Amino acid sequence: MKKFYELIVEYRKPIVIGFIITAVVCFFLKGLVGVNYDITDYLPDDSPSTQALDVMKKEFPDGIPNARVMVKDVSIPEALEMKDKLSKIDGVESVTWMDDSVDITTPLEMLDTEVIETYYKNNTALYSLTIDEEKDAETVAKVREVIGEDNALTGSVVNTADGRTNTVAEVDLITIVAVLFVLAVLTLSTDSWVEPIVVLAGLGVAILINGGTNLMFGTVSFVTNAAGSVLQLAVSLDYSVFLIHRFEEMKKKESDPKKAMTVALSKSTMSILSSGLTTVIGFLAVILMRFKIGPDVGLSLAKGVVISLITTFVFMPGLILLTYKIMEKTKHRSLLPSFKLFGKGIGKITMPLVICFVLMIVPGFLAYNSNSYYYGASKLFNENSRIGRDNALVEETFGENDTYALMVKSGDRVKEKELSDELHKLPEVTSIISYVDTVGSTIPNSYLDSKTYSKLDSGNYTRMVISVSTPYEGENTFRLVETIRGLGEKYYPGEGGYYLAGNGVSTYDLKDTITADMMKVNVVAIAAVFIVLLFSLKSMLVPLILILAIETAIALNLSFPYFQDEVVFYVAYLIISSIQLGATVDYAILTTDRYRENRQTLDKKQAVSQTITDVTPSILVSGGVLTMVGFLMGWVSSNQLLAQLGIFIGRGALLSLLVVMLVLPGLLSVLDGIVTGRRGFGRIKSIHKERVGNGK
To answer: Dihedral of CA 378/384/386/389: which sign?
Structure first.
C-alpha cells in the first residue's frame, strides 16, 4: 500500500482537480435521478398484487382508481356536472360515481341505501378517480383547483404527488441544518478553525459523487433520497478527521510533509477500513430483503460509505497537503473540556450501571418484539398536513373505504354472476361495478358501445370494481383480502384464473413480504459484523459482547413505541436495526481497543476510568452528529415514515452512545479475562502461541 500512497501524494494536484470535476458533474447528474414515492412499487415482482397490476395494465385502458374526491353541498345534477368537469382534466383517465353503479333517474328512496351512501351522503358526493401516475403532480394540482379549498382530495397518487413536493423542500432544510451543526461540532472538537471546512469539503465531494452515481439505479426511493446524504455525512465524518490527526502526529516525526502523509495513510488504513467495513456490512445486509426498498436503501448507503472511504484515501491526502499550512496558522486551543473527572465519576459506579443494563435486556427485547405496525402508506401523513386533513374529512363523512379490482377469466357470465352474488354477501362490500352488475348477465355484448364494454371486459378478463368499507390496512382488511382471494380461487382455480389488485391488497402482500424479511436481515447483519469483529479484534467471545451491547441498544430504541403506545412503520423498524448496528458498532470497537491498551499499564478500575476519559470526545462527536441528524429528520419530515425513521436513528445513536460510554467499559472489566485474552477463548493468537509452546 505504501507505493500506492506515494503515488497518491505525488499526483495530489491532478487527483484533487479530478475529484472536484467529478463532484460537479455528479451534482448535475443527481437532478436526473428519479425519486419514487410509492411504497407498493417495491413489492417483489412475483407478489400476487404486483402480477395483478401488470395484467390490468395490459388488459384495460384505465387502471384501478387511485384517488378520491369529496365535494360538499351539491345536488345530484350538480354532482354530475362536477363529474364531467373532473373527467375533462388532463391526466384524469376515468371518474367513477353513483351513476356508474345505479340508475339515478330512479328516485333515491327506491335504491339500495348502502350503495347510495357509498357515493352520495348528506348532499356530499364522493368520486373515485384514476389519475395517470406519469402526470400525478400537475393533475393533482388541477383537480384541487377545480374542487376548491373547502373540498377534499385523497388517495395513493395524491400521497405520491404531495410527498414529492414536501420532501424536496424538507431534504434541503435538513441538509443545510445538518451541515451547520457538523461545522459547529467540528469547530469544538478540532484545534484549527480551517480544519472543519477541509473535512466538510471532503465529505461534500463524497456525497455529491454518491448522489450523482445513483443514476445507475435509474430511480431511488424517497427513503434513500431523504436519508442517504445526511446519513453518509454522519457515519463518514470520522474518517477524514482521523487521517488529519494522524498526519499531524507524523509531521512531528517526519520533516517532509509528503512523507508524513504517506506514513499517516499507511498507519491509519486498517483503523479506517475496519470502521468503514462494519458500516458497509450493516447497510448491505438490507439488500437481502425481497421488499425492494431494502436493496434500494442498502446499495445507495453502502456505495456512499465506500465512496467516502475512497475519498478519504485518495482525495483527502492531496487536499490536506494543499491546506495544512493554513490549518497550522489557524490553530486554537481545544474548546472541548477535559473528560477526566467524568471518567473517574463513571468508573466509580461501573457495577450499578452494568447491573441496570443487564436488568433491561429482557424487558427491552420483549417490548421490542411486541410493537404494533403500519405496513403500507395509509398513515404516511398526519392530520396537520393537507393530505391528513383531507383524509380525515372523507372518513368523517363516508367512513374508511377502499377500491379493489378483481379480474377473472372472461367467457362465463353465469359463473361471474355467482361470484358477484357471493361478493355482495360480504358485509364490507358496499358496491360492485361489473358487467353482470351493471349490464346484466343476459345482455349480449353487441348491445354495448365499445368504450363501455372495454372498461368491463377486455376479451381475456372481466373486471369487477369492488368498493369496500375497510381502511387500506388492518386485521379486518387483511381478512377481507384473504376472503376475496378465496372466492376467486373457488370459481377460477389455478394460475391466471383470477387477479386481485387494490391498496389494501398491496398492503397485505407488503406485510407478508417485509415480515418474512426481518429475521433474515438481522441474522445476516449480525453474522457479517461478527466475522469482521472476529478478524479485527482476534477474539471469539469479545465480538459477542460488543454485538450484545449494540443489539440491546437497538432493542431499547425500538421498545419506546411499545411503552408510548405508538404504532411503528414496519419499514422503518426493519431498516433501523441494520443501520444502527452498522453505524454505531464502531463506538464499541474503539472502546474495546482503548480498554485493552489501558489494561497493559493500569488495573481494571483505573483502566475503566481512563478508557471513558479517552473515548468520550471521539464518541460524543460521531454519536452526537448522528443523533442530531436523526432527530432533525424526525422533526422536519412531514412524511411520518421518514419522521419515525429519523427519530429511530437519532434515539438509536444516542442509546448506543450511552451504552458504549457508560456500560461497556464496566462490562469489559467484568469480563476482563476474556477481553484481554488471559483466560477463556480470548485472543486467538495467544491460544495458538500457547499450543505451539506446549508442543501441541
So the answer is: positive
